[in-house]
Amino acid sequence: MAHIVVTTRSGSTLNIAAPSGISVMETIREAGVDDLAALCGGSCSCATCHVYVDAAQMALLSPVSEAEDDLLSGSEHRQENSRLSCQLICDEKSDGLRVTIAPEG
User: Mean pLDDT across the stretch 43-52?
Assistant: First the structure.
C-alpha cells in the first residue's frame, strides 16, 4: 500500500495510507482531515479539493485534463503545481506523494 504525505492548512504533516485505486481526495477525507471540503464528492465540478503537489513530483502524475484546468483557472490560489486531489488516483507511483492543501476559496 502506498502512503501520501499531506500538509494541512495549519502546517501539520500527516503520513496517510493510500489504498490503490482510491483518489487522493478520498484518502485525505477518510483519514479525517477536515481542511479538504470536496463538496462535489470527486466529480471534478467544484475545485474545493485543490492541493499543491510537491513540484519535483509533478511529472509522476497524469496530465491535467481540460475540465480540471478550467476549474483551477477560477482559483485565485492557483500555482504551477496545483491539482484537484479528486483527479489524482493512488497507485504504486504515488507512494511518497507530497501534497499541501491549498487555501480555501
Answer: 94
